[in-house]
Design a protein that fits this description.
two-stranded antiparallel ribbon, 13 helices, rod-shaped
Length: about 260
């Protein structure tokens, strides 16, 4: 701190003003022997010198970093510490603090991203769109399985932009597709038949349109999962018994049709 002092030094009020602390704080520092004004005015009042201000700057630095006052006193009154040692220590402490704050900022950014992604609907809107099914029931597992993939990130990013009306439209498309696929299975259509393959292709395009790009090889993997994962199997078989396996076979046939 560099200020123009009168010959008598600085009053407690002046120091409080330009150091950004209260007069009460300075009185406390004086009472505990941490920072006693070292000069006197002509009238005998205690005044702070430039050296006192330098010490106050050191005190406030360590206080900012969370050091208790007794530790601050020990640091400042260490006879072995020269001014350069103080600066070195302060630099190390600041560097450590910066690293910690950067990690905290990164954690907050991550939390912000997490809040930004996913389905942004109120509980009432969710119920209106999805009924008693929770669309994010397996969100944590999905993140563990696919969290590092581009497809997952893209899906989360797009989902975050959808309104209630968008979700209603998506849900209506799924319901309509499910009704048509159930009718096809009930009618005894074969998975390798054109009608089934066309619905499998429609399924692939639905995911591509609303969530992420689904190449045919990935779609094959999805088809296998719809049978091997009992929750997916239950979801599709609820549309019509045996639909999960039928869809898997139709997805395989459709992928072969497009790769040949």
């Amino acid at each position: 701190m560099s200020h123009s002092a009168g010959q008598d030094g600085y009053s407690v009020g002046q120091v409080a003003g330009f150091a950004g602390v209260t007069v009460r704080t300075l009185h406390h520092y004086d009472d505990i022997g941490l920072l006693a004004p070292s000069e006197r005015s002509h009238a005998g009042h205690r005044r702070y010198s430039e050296a006192d201000l330098d010490r106050l700057q050191q005190i406030l630095f360590y206080r900012e970093l969370g050091f208790p006052l007794d530790e601050v006193a020990a640091l400042l009154d260490d006879p072995a510490a020269d001014p350069r040692a103080h600066l070195r220590r302060q630099h190390e402490l600041l560097t450590a603090r910066i690293e910690k704050l950067q990690k905290m900022a990164a954690a907050v950014e991550h939390a912000m991203e997490a809040r930004k992604m996913g389905i942004n609907l109120t509980p009432e809107e969710r119920f209106e769109v999805f009924g008693d099914k929770d669309p994010e029931q397996y969100a944590e597992e999905a993140e563990q399985r696919w969290g590092g993939t581009d497809a997952y990130v893209e899906s989360q990013r797009r989902a975050a932009t959808y309104t209630k009306e968008d979700w209603k439209r998506i849900q209506a498309e799924v319901d309509d597709w499910g009704r048509r696929y159930a009718e096809l299975v009930a009618a005894g259509e074969q998975p390798a038949g054109e009608a089934a393959m066309d619905l499998a292709e429609e399924h692939r395009q639905h995911v591509t349109r609303y969530f992420f790009e689904v190449p045919y090889e990935m779609h094959r993997c999805f088809g296998d999962m719809y049978v091997s994962d009992e929750r997916f199997k239950a979801f599709y078989d609820a549309m019509h018994p045996g639909l999960a396996e039928h869809l898997r076979d139709a997805i395989r046939a459709n992928a072969s049709r497009h790769s040949s």
